[in-house]
Specification:
Elements: H1 2-19, E1 22-28, E2 32-38, E3 56-61, E4 63-69, E5 73-79, E6 82-84, E7 96-101, E8 106-107, E9 110-111, E10 143-148, E11 152-158, E12 176-179, E13 184-189, E14 193-199, E15 202-204, E16 216-219
Antiparallel strand pairs: 1-2, 1-3, 3-6, 4-5, 4-7, 8-9, 10-11, 10-12, 12-15, 13-14, 13-16
Length: 221
């Protein structure tokens, strides 16, 4: 019995390790520059000389919260598995990170596997396919818009281009966004005009300068 319990304890430890999330932080956009890979929470990136230095991120597994101050304080965003070549509104502004959902997630190689077969090119950039994050618990729409910050209020799910969000009753109403698949451009005017931003898979609890200003959207990748 003791041997059986010991074996079960070892198996549980290995299982928890296998399910731990993993992400790599890069000092420059497009996965260039110095980097640090984490498999556990970091309350202060200054401890590893990476405070306010993050400009791009590759997440292999798990959903991670990234905050502008130490101890997970200040503005925060949540990102799932995928490649984030740039960080609008959070470039060189991240001081702490922690995993908020454990599990292998979904990388481009399938659940629990990130297809990283020596993809670094001559210039040191990360050449993997764009990771698509899907949270099947919330349905099959590629994009979900919420009328309030932090994914609250009225919501609408979309999976195709919208030349005018008035057609779905959501013009100038989006306060937060969840993207499960693809890279999407969001613009302040109909027909993809005016100021635009591009977001990849992830959870955007705050939209900063685009809050309640989005009138059209289209998939760009």
């Amino acid at each position: 019995m003791k041997r059986l319990l010991a074996a079960a304890a070892v198996l549980a430890t290995l299982t928890n390790t296998a399910l731990a999330g993993e992400l790599t932080l890069f000092a420059d956009s497009n996965f260039r520059g110095n980097r640090v890979t984490l498999e556990r929470d970091a309350r202060n990136l200054g401890d590893m000389n990476f405070n306010d230095r993050v400009s791009s991120i590759a997440i292999r597994s798990g959903v991670w919260q990234l905050c502008e101050h130490a101890n997970f304080d200040g503005r925060c965003i949540e990102l799932g598995p995928g490649e984030y070549r740039n960080l609008p509104d959070f470039n060189d502004a991240i001081s702490s990170v922690r995993e908020v959902t454990r599990g292998p997630g979904r990388g481009p190689g399938g659940p629990g596997r990130w297809d990283d077969r020596d993809e670094r090119g001559d210039h040191g950039d990360w050449r993997g396919d764009r990771g698509g994050w899907r949270d099947d618990r919330r349905g099959g729409d590629d994009v979900e818009l919420f009328s309030s910050q932090r994914f609250e209020g009225a919501q609408v799910g979309l999976s195709r281009d919208q030349r005018s969000l008035s057609d779905v009753g959501f013009n100038d109403r989006a306060g937060s966004i969840i993207i499960r698949e693809g890279r999407w451009e969001f613009c302040e005017h109909a027909d993809f005009r005016g100021q635009c931003v591009v977001f990849g898979p992830g959870r955007y609890a705050f939209l900063e300068q685009m809050n309640n200003r989005i009138s059209s959207m289209r998939r760009v990748r």
